[in-house]
């Protein structure tokens, strides 16, 4: 048994980190605010690096790696706050032409259930991330994965002010049924992969928030000392590390379970990852703001971007409460 | 970033050798456990010593004593993974815990292996492995808790003896131990970390008095030790004089690394019992299980134990690679303390007014949830408080400046 990154995985992580530091600086990412949230050129660079084709076999033009490797990659993308429908396009690679190569930007949204709503007979609207940037939109439900006409939806959708300025959303009143592109069994697998990789993104967000807070705690002086010297601040940072490490163990375990069910039930592991990742990203985001004090509440400091990304990702692939319900069935 | 060949996924599976180690152990536990008697009452220390010694001897005869000790010192020389398997299987089978042999096997013994002379090793290591000589730990003092290096128990040389006077506290099993790993101050002039020595103290020396401390739980798990001119032979010095702080630290992180792994397994087993209680307990005609808040908290706790098990495997893997238990031990301990307290709160929510008594929980359960609720208070205090763990993480992982 060796549950630590292999040297290849470390190289993979370092490679993605270098890509993010060079091509997805926060200064660049902030230029996407008020647009559709995706830059087509940079999206192609992600694809060229293999982000979307990681688990496709080499014979199909993929990188031929596994989901544990994908978790490591998505953690880095989350840490850099790389925006865009990363998980949707990853899942669509191999199913929709051009997804793997970055030519087709693919979104994925859970179909609102007919019995969800406000009791007034109307079905709940769908909120579609990055709709304005999409070439294709997939809808997932218990019966499968369906393709709908993204352009037609965009024409009718409303665009409210988004919580996360880097995750623009569109409100779609009625999602059409669409054309089935994958069956119910595939949809179940997509949910497990989607939950795991969304958790990996959140792990990165939580880690990035911890890094930012720590850097500030070392440099910000009050009472003649760096504030990180005070236990009240130091311990907040230490709690962020604890959440990260618990979350990291859960996310990597979920990646390994997707690669080999002998190490664990992938559905169960995905739920564990989801619960830990929601907790880590939202709590670390809040603590990051708190460590920054008043500056943490400004637009200029990135703390709110980490917190908001964590909050947005928490709404995807099942809430922590839904996953807690599922976990109760395993006890 | 494209490796030429697919990297092997993180390897969470046991190797064939590890699997056969596990199967052999399982079979042995299955055969031997029925003949092991009932655990004695925790307040009967003489019976406890007898029970723990007998179990340690059983382990020794079967070749499982000193699971992680090197072979040349009589141990099994198991890898950290095999050690994890040993803890996991023992706990699942509800085998006896290491008990009063804890300090000898997990702390003093490994320290002697690293730092002692051949004579000291020959005298003590076999007896520890066989369970013949329980040890206790004389580190903390009333004035030196989290700031252990400020300890003041004084030792001065008188010929071939150290003459030791002072007071120690939180000494588990002092009533029944034969030896004590004792930290004393041999140089009051030097900086506090550089004037400490590590001594082997026989527990039958004149001038030593042990007074049990009654804990909040009501039992006497710990004692105080009063030393009044206790004469300890210089031959019992381990490592160099005034180098005792380093000697103690050699194995200190170990306690944070593996000592609490069995708690994860037993707590996950207890959670199943709690879920069973939730399905039985009725409130206004509906079972507590039908309360979504209760159900989700049970689910969250299961998710936490699963994550903690994954974290354990990461820590063990890192120990296997580096030979050290890193700050992952501090992370694990902080998380465990938090989760255990939540689990105790859940037990209270389910059992309600029955939790005013330690025993007789309406026939609902054999598990001591009420005693555990009190005991969980120690998880954020013993072996380095949660605040000290946070300092360790803040300073050693994040590089934040020290307060001092």
Order of helices and strands of chain A: HHHHHEEEEHEEHEEHHHH
N to C succession of SSEs of chain B = HHHHHEEEEEEEEHHHEEHHHH
Oligomeric state as shown: heterodimer
Task: Estimate the global geometry of chain B from the Cα principal axes.
Answer: globular
Q: Estimate the helix proportion of chain B, in percent.
A: 40-55%
Largest β sheet strand count, sense and barrel closure of chain A: 4 strands, mixed
Radius of gyration of chain B from CA coordinates:
23 Å
Mean pLDDT reading of chain A? 96
| Helix-and-strand structural type of chain A | alpha+beta
- Uncertain runs of chain A are none
What class would the helix/strand composition of chain B place it in?
A: alpha+beta
Strand content of chain A: 5-15%
Quote the distance from N terminus to C terminus of chain A: 25 Å
Biggest interface, which chains? A-B, 70 and 60 residues
How many strands in all of chain B? Answer: 10
| Fraction of helical residues of chain A | 40-55%
Low-confidence segments of chain B, given as residue ranges, are: 1-9
What do you see in this structure?
- The complex is a heterodimer of chains A (331) and B (404).
- By secondary structure, chain A is α+β, with helices and mostly antiparallel strands.
- Helix content of chain A is 52%, strand content 10%.
- In chain A, the strands form three sheets. Chain A has a four-stranded mixed beta sheet with strand order 1-3-4-6. A two-stranded antiparallel sheet of chain A has the order 2-5.
- In chain A, strand 3 and strand 4 (144-148) form a beta hairpin.
- Chain A is globular.
- Chain A starts with 6 loop residues before the first helix and ends with a helix.
- A four-stranded mixed beta sheet of chain B has the order 1-4-5-8. Chain B has a four-stranded antiparallel beta sheet with strand order 2-3-7-6, with no helix packed on it.
- The chains are: A alpha+beta (331), B alpha+beta (404).
Secondary structure elements and pairings:
The complex is a heterodimer of chains A (331) and B (404).
Chain A lengths: L6 H17 L2 H5 L9 H10 L17 H13 L6 H7 L13 E5 L15 E4 L6 E6 L2 E5 L1 H7 L12 E4 L6 E4 L1 H36 L1 E2 L2 E2 L4 H29 L6 H27 L10 H11 L6 H9 L3
Chain B lengths: L15 H17 L12 H17 L18 H13 L9 H14 L2 H12 L5 E4 L15 E5 L2 E12 L6 E7 L10 E7 L5 E6 L8 E12 L3 E2 L5 H7 L1 H7 L2 H20 L1 E2 L2 E2 L4 H31 L5 H24 L17 H7 L10 H12 L7
């Amino acid at each position: 048994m060796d549950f630590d990154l292999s040297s290849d995985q470390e190289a993979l992580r370092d490679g993605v980190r270098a890509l993010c530091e060079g091509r997805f600086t926060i200064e660049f990412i902030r230029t996407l605010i008020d647009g559709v949230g995706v830059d087509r050129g940079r999206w192609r660079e992600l694809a060229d690096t293999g982000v979307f084709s990681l688990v496709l076999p080499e014979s199909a033009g993929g990188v031929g790696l596994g989901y544990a490797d994908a978790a490591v990659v998505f953690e880095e993308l989350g840490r850099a706050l790389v925006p865009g429908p990363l998980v949707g396009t990853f899942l669509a690679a191999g199913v929709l032409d051009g997804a793997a190569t970055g030519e087709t930007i693919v979104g994925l949204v859970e179909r609102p259930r007919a019995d969800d709503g406000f009791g007034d007979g109307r079905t709940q609207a769908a909120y579609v991330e990055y709709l304005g940037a999409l070439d294709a939109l997939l809808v997932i439900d218990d019966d499968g994965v369906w393709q709908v006409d993204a352009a037609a939806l965009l024409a009718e959708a409303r665009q409210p002010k988004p919580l996360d300025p880097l995750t623009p959303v569109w409100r779609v009143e009625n999602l059409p049924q669409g054309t089935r592109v994958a069956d119910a069994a595939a949809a179940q697998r997509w949910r497990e992969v989607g939950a795991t990789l969304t958790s990996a993104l959140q792990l990165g967000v939580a880690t990035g928030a911890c890094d930012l807070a720590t850097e500030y705690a070392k440099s910000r002086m009050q009472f003649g000392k760096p504030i990180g010297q005070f236990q009240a601040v130091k311990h907040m940072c230490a709690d962020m590390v604890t959440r990260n490490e618990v979350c990291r163990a859960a996310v990597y375990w979920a990646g390994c379970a997707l690669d080999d069910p002998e190490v664990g039930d992938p559905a169960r592991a995905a739920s564990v990852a989801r619960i830990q990742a929601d907790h880590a990203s939202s709590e670390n985001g809040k603590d990051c703001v708190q460590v920054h004090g008043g500056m943490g509440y400004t637009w200029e400091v990135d703390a709110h971007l980490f917190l908001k990304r964590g909050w947005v990702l928490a709404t995807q692939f099942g809430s922590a409460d839904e996953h807690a319900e599922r976990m109760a069935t395993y006890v | 970033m494209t490796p030429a060949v697919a990297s092997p996924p993180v390897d969470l599976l046991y190797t064939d050798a590890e699997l056969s180690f596990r199967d052999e152990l399982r079979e042995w536990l299955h055969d031997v456990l029925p003949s092991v008697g009932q655990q004695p009452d925790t307040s009967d220390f003489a019976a406890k010593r007898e029970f723990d010694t007998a179990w340690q001897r059983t382990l020794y005869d079967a070749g499982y004593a000193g699971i992680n000790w090197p072979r040349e010192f009589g141990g099994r020389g198991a890898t950290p993974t095999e050690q994890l398997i040993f803890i996991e299987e023992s706990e699942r089978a509800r085998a006896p815990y290491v008990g009063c042999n804890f300090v000898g096997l997990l702390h003093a013994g490994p320290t002697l292996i690293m730092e002692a002379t051949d004579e000291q090793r020959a005298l003590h290591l076999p007896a520890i492995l066989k369970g013949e000589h329980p040890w206790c730990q004389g580190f903390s003092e009333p004035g030196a808790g989290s700031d252990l290096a400020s300890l003041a128990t004084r030792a001065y040389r008188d010929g071939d003896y150290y003459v030791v006077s002072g007071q120690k506290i939180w000494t588990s099993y002092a009533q029944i131990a034969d030896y004590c790993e004792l930290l004393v101050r041999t140089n009051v002039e030097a900086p506090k970390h550089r004037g400490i020595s590590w001594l082997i103290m026989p527990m039958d020396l004149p001038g030593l008095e042990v007074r049990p401390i009654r804990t909040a739980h009501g039992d006497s798990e710990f004692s105080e030790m009063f030393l009044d001119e206790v004469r300890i032979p210089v031959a019992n010095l381990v490592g160099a004089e005034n180098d005792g702080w380093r000697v103690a630290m050699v194995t200190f992180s170990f306690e944070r690394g593996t000592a609490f792994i069995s708690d994860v397994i037993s707590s996950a087993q207890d959670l199943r019992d709690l879920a069973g209680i939730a399905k039985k307990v009725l409130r206004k005609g509906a079972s507590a299980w039908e309360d979504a808040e209760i159900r989700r908290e049970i689910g969250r706790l299961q998710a936490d134990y699963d994550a903690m098990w994954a974290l354990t495997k990461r820590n063990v893997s890192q120990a296997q690679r580096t030979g050290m238990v890193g700050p992952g031990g501090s992370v694990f301990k902080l998380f465990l303390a938090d989760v255990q307290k939540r689990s105790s709160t859940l037990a209270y929510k389910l059992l309600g007014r029955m939790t005013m008594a330690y025993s007789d929980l309406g026939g609902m359960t054999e598990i001591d949830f009420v005693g555990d609720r009190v005991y969980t208070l120690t998880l954020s205090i013993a072996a380095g408080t949660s605040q000290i763990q946070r300092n360790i993480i803040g300073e050693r992982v994040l590089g934040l400046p020290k307060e001092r």
